[in-house]
Sequence to fold (797 residues):
Amino acid sequence: MQKKTLVILLTILLLICSIAGAVDYKDRPVNIGMIVDGPWEINDQFLNQFKKEILDLTAGEFDIRFPVDKTIVGDWSVESIDEGLDRLLADKEVDIIITGGVLASHLASGKGDLPKPVIAPFIIDEIAQDIPAQKGHSAIKNLSYIAPPDHLVGELQAFHEIYPFEKLLIIVNEPFYDLVKNNKSARVRKWFESINAGFNFIPSGKTVEDVLASIPEGTDAVYFGFLPQFDDTEFRRLMDGFISRKLPTFSLMGEMDIRRGAMAALTSNKYYNRISRRTALNIQSILLGEKPENIPVNISRFERLIINMSTARSINKYPSWSILTEAQLIDVSREDIERVVTIESAVDEAIRSNRDLLASSKDVEAAGQNRIKARANLLPQLEVSALGTLIDEDRAEASLGSATEESIAGTASASMLIFSEPAWANYSIQGNLQKSREYEHQKYVLDITLETVTTYLDLLKAKTYERIQGDNLKRTRSNYELAKIRQSIGASGPGEVYRWENQIATSRNSVIEANAYRNLAEIALNRILNRPSEEQFTISDISLNNPELFIADRRFVQYLENPWSFKVFREFMVEESQNNSMELAAINAALEARKRALYSSRNSMWMPTLALKADYTEQLHEGGAGTNGASALPFDLPKADDTNWSLAINASLPIFSGGAKISNMIQKSDELKMLEYQRESVVEKVEQRIRSALHLMGASYAAIHQTRMASEAADKTLDLVLDAYSRGEASILDLIDAQNASLVSSLLAANAVYDFLDDYMNVQRAVGKFDLTMQDKDKEDFLNRLDQRYDELSNDN
Fold:
């Protein structure tokens, strides 16, 4: 009984002490002191970001103040920073201290238990800096620090993955070097041993020349921390010095250094915004009664490699495919591409430049000469010729004047068909056949247009697939960092980290495949447009609001939104297809040719062929033996003059050809019947194609809304599971399943519009007309006919 009473009394005593020791910040102003390592051109930007986050978060709850005289700027020396920190710790008017620098944060962690709350947001690596910690919390009273888990080794691993160095130079500013040079950093050294590499750890010195002169022989890469002694110009000179030595560089500070010439980093500028936000949350927790040492210290950076491609090109060190899958690339040449391809310009360029279309066009032009040649048979034919002969003298003498030793004669001949049924039939047939070829060419134009549009949409799908896979990789990387934080606080084992590493590798592979699909689609589009296969270009997205498309017009869309109007729409489109179908037009022209051939075959049974021919010959020269004619004869013979002419007319009608005429007529009749059957088949196929395409289009149109709903639901589920996972209430398998479901839903939702547009373009191909190539007047006529047809069918019912 006495023991129980003693326990109760001790409990009450502890509670009283706790209440007495607790600080109530709600009834008075809260003064926050800040100390930064030294003068820096963006100090004000950093400090103002911290102040804004804190004031925004605590507005209306606490009266937070930042007295100007409570903000101390050191001179980059350990002594000045340590003295300023002690001054703030001793200042009774300061309630909470924020160490706004790497040196100040490190010094605060080495002072042991502190008399008042201190937030140290710039701890680089708690292990490498020997910061006292326990299970993801600070082991120092009143100290709350912020640090990414396994930061330094993580950055070194990332750098080694980009460039597998063998001897790394690590450079930090001199004061920080003096503070940490004696730390054992066993984990870092063990990591270097695991990759069979070495490193040198040196201070930066005062000038660019100091740094460059201190590079040890054999160094093949440089990792550097915060180098505040160099202004922007000097820093760029330092980077140029590394570049001239072909040394890959990796910056601890991150993106701000990448944009000034460093090659790679993991820390984006957004990370510093997250640091300021996390600091504000820690201060709010402290003001609400949380002990600083109980606040979790680890923070996820949402790591993403940032690579300056200009620097990489300058030193001839290029990242691998796996690196490029998730890296943010700075100064990439693709950003300078001037060629922009829209879906309209792609169709126009394909029609003008596609090699297959050009070949088809020339084939039609060449075949067009057949009709000209057929017409030539119906026109007069004129021929002139000259004949010169030389014979032996005795033969000329013996010819009695009928042949001279030398002679030259000129002849002109003219002929013309007065009437020939086969010739006239051939002329008509060739005309119809040419029309058929022209319609076939127009069909080919439609096919190339469809191929261009679908290839363009395939490229948009591939780009969307690549983007979503990239986003999924970022999400996987974020979950990996979350798993490392869970491991650091003992909430999970290394197995989860390894599993996420496996997921990262799988996601990277998916991004690489997506990139390949995009490249293939670009090559395919370039081929259609008769461009060099890998000529770079950018494309414009296409949506349901594109004014060039009927789908952007409410008058058109309304016919897709219920079964009755959609049925009317199908009937109308079938009628349109019968009028516009190039397949039907081509076979109709071929039918006319067959009909004319059959008509000619029948007429040739009784119609004769009449032809007229005239010849005119002029003897231009005679000489040598035989010139005097038959002068040796005792009597004179009549002598013809030098001009000869003749005129003849011919009529022919084959009476019997062994049955060939009848056979030819039967053959032409059967060929005509065959084409008639083929035409009926084409009519059926065109109707089937248009109706099938329309049903697919209707389904894909409805899928747009459904896939979006599914994607939103999957994302919400993922958020819930991710939150539960971070609190230890869901397993890694639950999170992976939710993430995969979100990925699949995102892909389906993102591509639903493109799938619909793909089906929509197939409908237009089936109809025989693309709205992308139609004039505004033609579009308006189309919509008016559609409205009229709807009214007619509505009245009939």
